[in-house]
Write a structure and sequence with these properties.
Distance between the termini: 21 Å
Shape: globular
Number of helices: 12
CATH architecture of the largest domain: 2-Layer Sandwich
Number of strands: 17
CATH topology of the largest domain: Uridine Diphospho-n-acetylenolpyruvylglucosamine Reductase, domain 3
Strand order of the largest sheet: 13-10-12-11-15-16-14-17
Helix content: 25-40%
Strand content: 15-25%
Order of helices and strands: HEEEEHEHHEEHEEEHEEHEHEHEEHEHH
Structural class: alpha+beta
């Protein structure tokens, strides 16, 4: 089946309208870097790659408007060239697009202090499952009129509509970033150290821990402030660990904690839970032979292993969290839903919202089980 490639929002609207009339299921795709997420499916692909380019960028107003097919790397290079950044620290591979990043809700280690994708998405132009174009939000930071529909699009995985344009809030990039490292801490001690650091006046912007006993703490800002906080943090954590200053090599360690890419195993899970339960989670999954990496001060734990059962999801649920199946062999993805099931009331509300945007189930491909 040929991939459909709309050139603009009107093209995209017509494709969706035709799908509504013909009962066709559509799957929206950016760079295709996460095409294997979710169950295998036979469906009409709509590539948004041609909807690319910068619409408007006003560094003074800290606002960027861009089309969804624009490569994430190009967006990051653009704002970095102006001494700015996307505060939620998105990450991806060479094919990743800004639209796909927003739709998947991808946020990096800074999310624990800077907020998620939805907190920085100001406005969107969307083609709904009704085949209608609507605009929500705006191109200014102080916009509180009406319902905050852009937040629904962040992390929606294209199940509510196709983003044709999006506006993001950007922030000044820190002049200096430093990483302090503690070596040899077990998971529970690392959690306590990260919690103490994140709650301190040292204004730590990110905290992560790798299974091999490497604990990472990031401090960012103006040079004098960073130096002062790097000097005081060892004293703050004197009852928890000894810290050493790391250089540029720490970028690879942050990438490892942020993405889980280096974990061993054919199956990869992502768990979200209260940070205080992260150490217990790592203890339990290690009994299954799992590898792991902890980010967001323990709020996100990546888990890698070869076992294709749902034991990881049951363990995470028992600890009050949610587990997402990120990557697995096709057989497992066919029988195990990627998304963690919601409570009945939440699930019913989510279904009502989805049907308000997509009453004909145009975007209900079965990728995430049921009508998702």
């Amino acid at each position: 089946m040929a991939i459909l490639e709309p050139r603009d929002a009107q093209d995209l609207r017509q494709i969706v309208a035709d799908a509504v009339a013909g009962g066709t299921k559509l799957e929206l795709r950016g760079g295709g870097s996460r095409a294997d997420f979710g169950a295998p499916r036979e469906v009409q692909i709509v590539s948004l790659a041609a909807l690319s380019g910068i619409v408007d960028y006003d560094p003074a107003e800290l606002v960027l408007t861009v089309r969804p097919g624009t490569l994430l790397s190009n967006v990051l290079a653009l704002v970095e060239g102006e001494g700015q950044m996307l505060a939620f620290e998105p990450w991806g591979d060479a094919a990743s697009t800004i639209g796909g990043t927003v739709a998947a809700g991808i946020a990096g280690s800074r999310r624990v202090t800077a907020g998620s994708v939805r907190d920085h998405l100001l406005g969107v132009t969307v083609v709904s499952g009704r085949g209608e174009i609507f605009v929500a939000g705006g191109k200014v930071v102080k916009n509180v009129t009406g319902y905050d529909l852009p937040k629904l699009m962040a992390g929606s995985w294209g199940r509510l509509g196709a983003i044709a344009e999006l506006t993001l809030k950007v922030l000044p990039r820190p002049r200096v970033t430093a990483t302090l490292i503690a070596d040899g801490l077990p998971a529970e001690a690392a959690y306590r150290a990260m919690a103490r650091a994140l709650g301190s006046h040292a204004d730590v912007s990110a905290a992560a821990h790798l299974r091999r006993g490497v604990t990472l703490l990031r401090i960012a800002g103006f040079a004098p402030s960073v130096e002062a906080r790097c000097a005081v943090l060892p004293d703050i954590l004197k009852d928890h660990c000894t810290l050493r200053r790391d250089g540029e090599a720490s970028a690879l360690l942050w990438r490892e904690a942020m993405t889980g890419e280096a974990l061993k195993g054919r199956v990869k899970w992502r768990a979200h839970l209260l940070p205080r339960h992260a150490a217990e989670l790592t203890r339990r999954v290690e009994t299954l032979g799992a590898d792991w990496a902890m980010d967001w001060g323990g709020g996100r734990v990546w888990i890698g292993l070869d076992d294709e059962s749902e034991d990881i999801r049951r363990i995470v649920l028992d600890l009050g969290g949610e587990a997402t199946l990120v990557d697995a062999p096709v057989g497992m993805r066919s029988r195990v839903p990627a998304m963690h099931g919601s409570a009945p009331g939440v699930s019913a509300l989510a279904d009502r919202v989805r049907r308000a945007f997509d009453p004909a189930d145009v975007f209900a491909t079965g990728r995430f089980g049921g009508a998702a």
